[in-house]
Specification:
The structure is a single chain. The chain is an alpha+beta fold and 381 residues long. Helices cover 49% and strands 22% of the residues. The chain contains 11 helices and 10 strands. The strands form 4 sheets. A 4-stranded antiparallel sheet has the order 5-4-6-7. Strands 1-2 form a two-stranded antiparallel ribbon. The chain is elongated. The two termini are 13 Å apart.
């Protein structure tokens, strides 16, 4: 079962990468740029088919994919008669849209997955179903039983228990009227909550312990909750990237010196795959809870990857966007001085910087890979 979870994560990751590349592809085509290749994987070509000017196919190493847009730099050769379709000749606005489309679709995919979670699978919530009645409590005195479902309190239908329970807590001991569903039959009871000390806090309670389980939300609430969680994931992703340098020493200690792995520290793709496998294979969760956990992991990963790709460093999309913005700033300054628009920045000139960044990212990736193998993060599910 755990292996199934890991395989599912790999498929989900590949799908996410191709959604990212599709964002580049569809916007580049929209603006008339020449897209020559769209491949899943890298390395040796296993299969391909030509559709118009683009070759679609699959390569041997399933470690992502790519969309090749011709003319990324001024010295790139273009097919005869297609010189004006080079990427570097497009306006800065069009470049920014094409470059940002991949991350944008990561955010969209994350939102869609969260919406599926809220509306289709459900999230763990306290349910109005009573799991246990506390002995000698107001609930027991009123004849409330385990298995009863609270339908309404004081005539108000129960929809969200975490909100509706406030009626009991704020009752000040006054008599409450409850409608219960018992074995398909609705019955009415009255009970008065008693002031009870719970973990040092005095509150009015009936003395019932509710079930916890998955509950789906309505359409509008699901959209609202998905937007809120997407925003929270975005914010947390930005914070995590900002704290990345200070987390590297702890990662080094966990990798080289065998120190305890920080569950809130850096985790690589292998680590996330293992966590996904652990969630899907856990016998402590119901099948739907496993699915919910898996969907949440993939949604959060998409949003993080979307933010990461927007970092203003080459060779990431954000680095190319920074170059496009710099081009526009140079053009603006030239206009102020009454000069013609300068030639676009040749990104190949920045190759040394790109290589340094690539080496740093590759080193961090290797360190994460080793840590995820020899000292993995676990959910203890």
């Amino acid at each position: 079962m755990e292996l199934l979870g890991i395989l599912a994560f790999v498929v989900a990751l590949l799908f996410s990468v191709m959604v990212h590349e599709f964002g580049h592809y569809i916007t580049a085509r929209r603006y008339g740029m020449w897209v020559s290749e769209f491949f899943v994987g890298f390395g040796k070509r296993l299969w391909s088919v030509q559709r118009g000017e683009t070759e679609f196919g699959v390569k041997a190493i399933p470690a992502g994919g790519y969309c090749k847009i011709e003319g990324m730099a001024p010295n790139d050769e273009m097919p005869a008669g297609q010189e004006d379709r080079a990427f570097y000749k497009a306006s800065s606005g069009k470049k920014l849209i094409v470059l940002g489309a991949g991350s944008f679709l990561h955010f969209v995919l994350g939102f869609v997955l969260l919406f599926t979670l809220f509306a289709g699978i459900g999230t763990n919530q306290v349910l109005p179903v009573i799991n246990e009645v506390v002995p000698n409590s107001a609930a027991q005195a009123a004849g409330i039983r385990a298995g009863d479902e609270v339908v309404s309190i004081n005539g108000k239908r129960v929809t969200e228990w975490y909100k509706d329970v406030e009626v009991i807590r704020e009752s000040q001991g006054r008599e409450l009227s409850l409608v219960l569903n018992r074995n398909g039959e609705e019955i009415s009871v009255t009970a008065s909550a008693r002031l009870t000390d719970i973990d040092g806090t005095k509150r009015y309670v009936l003395g019932i312990v509710n079930d916890v389980g998955l509950k789906r939300s309505g359409l509008l609430l699901s959209i609202k909750n998905s937007a809120i969680v997407t925003r929270d994931f975005l914010t947390e992703s930005v914070r995590s990237l900002g704290k990345l340098p200070e987390k590297i020493p702890a990662l080094w200690g966990a990798t080289v010196r065998g120190e305890e792995r920080d569950a809130n520290g850096l985790v690589g793709v292998v680590g996330v795959a293992r966590v996904s496998g652990e969630a899907v294979g856990s016998d402590k969760l119901t099948p739907m809870e496993r699915l919910a956990t898996f969907v949440l992991i993939v949604a959060s990963l998409n949003i993080f990857v979307g933010v990461f790709n927007l970092l203003p460093i080459l060779p990431l999309d954000g680095g190319h966007m920074a170059v496009a913005i710099a081009d526009e700033i140079r053009a603006f300054l030239a206009r102020l001085r009454g000069r013609p628009r300068p030639a676009p920045i040749d990104v190949t000139v920045l190759t040394p910087i790109t290589m340094v960044v690539f080496v740093v990212l590759a080193t961090l990736t290797l360190l994460l890979l080793v840590a995820d193998v020899i000292n993995p993060v676990t959910l203890n599910l």
